[in-house]
Amino acid sequence: MKVRLADFKEEWAHMYQTEAQFLKTIFGDEIIQVEHFGSTSVPGMKAKPVIDMMCIVTDINKIDLFNEKMDALGYDVAGEWGIPGRRLFRKGGENRTHHIHFYQSDNPQIQRHLIFRDYLRSHPDEAARYSEFKEELALRFENTIGYSPAKKAFVSEMEQRALLWQRMGSKG
């Protein structure tokens, strides 16, 4: 998939809300909570214009029962896609609009994603630094196959700062 970076758009929050409501009509009570995370959830950040959403559920195995329905609705059913305990659905084909990550409520990935999001929202200087890094990578890599792994070390280091920030009581 080609790397497409865009300036932050207010409409991303609306796209998240609309999709969250739609998913609740499909999955009903299976969904405990829905969260918007990733770069499109951080005001001012440059991002690939793909809304990352997290649906937190009681039993991850029940989500597999919806695969046929999601496929019929045009979602790419990607299963765990490299993260044990996750179920991933992608919407929009090559011009993807949403990545919908399902996690069982006790999965540690949930906190990692939400702490990182909250850290970036609370530290606009760090969000700007991350945006600049992504712009540099987008100039070097045409496709996400090179771009995504190249971000890994930078993101890991920033996640460590986010975890420390959270342990210190989310101050400063």
Lay out the secondary structure.
Elements lengths: L10 H17 L3 E7 L13 E7 L2 H4 L3 H6 L2 E5 L6 E6 L6 E7 L3 H15 L1 H17 L3 H24 L5
Parallel strand pairs: 2-5
Antiparallel strand pairs: 1-2, 3-4, 4-5
Q: Catalogue the unreliable spans.
A: none
N to C succession of SSEs: HEEHHEEEHHH
**Beta-strand proportion:** 15-25%
Kindly state the mean pLDDT as a whole number? Answer: 95
Strand order of the largest sheet: 1-2-5-4-3
The count of β-strands is 5
What is the alpha-carbon Rg in Å?
16 Å
General shape: globular
Figure out the total of helices.
6
Q: What is the helix content? A: 40-55%
Question: Structural class of the helices, strands and pairings?
Answer: alpha+beta
CA-CA gap between termini: 37 Å
Q: Biggest sheet, open or closed, and with what strands and sense?
A: 5 strands, mixed
Describe this structure in words.
The protein has six helices and five strands. With 172 residues, the chain is α+β, with helices and mostly antiparallel strands. A five-stranded mixed beta sheet has the order 1-2-5-4-3, with helices on both faces. Strand 3 and strand 4 (86-91) form a beta hairpin. It is globular and about 40 Å long. The termini are far apart. The model has no long low-confidence stretch (mean pLDDT 95).
